[in-house]
């Protein structure tokens, strides 16, 4: 998958700040659990297994590289 064009502009910084603020005061375990819940909520919103699989493979490629 190629990375999709930026659809957050001009709000990408606001999204990042909101995400970081959501983690403030959480333990590492709580932060990981929140990320997992957020991923599942976003996956439910996307709702397309092929798209989700492609996103997982793309994200994994960054870890492998």
Explain what this protein looks like in three dimensions.
- The protein is an all-alpha fold and 65 residues long.
- It has a domain of 38 residues.
- The chain is built from 3 helices and no strands.
- The longest helix has 19 residues.
- It is globular, with a radius of gyration of 14 Å.
Notable traits:
single chain; 65 residues; mainly alpha
In short:
With 65 residues, the chain is mostly helical. The chain has a domain at 27-64. The protein has helices spanning 12-23, 28-46, 49-64.
Instruction: Outline the biggest β-sheet.
Output: none
Distance between the termini: 15 Å
Number of beta-strand segments: 0
Structural class: mainly alpha
Q: Bin the helical content.
A: over 70%
Poorly predicted tracts of residues = none
Radius of gyration: 14 Å
Order of helical and strand elements: HHH
- Percent in strands: under 5%
Which shape, going by the Cα principal axes?
globular
Number of helices: 3
What's the pLDDT, averaged over the residues?
91
Topology:
Layout: H1 12-23, H2 28-46, H3 49-64
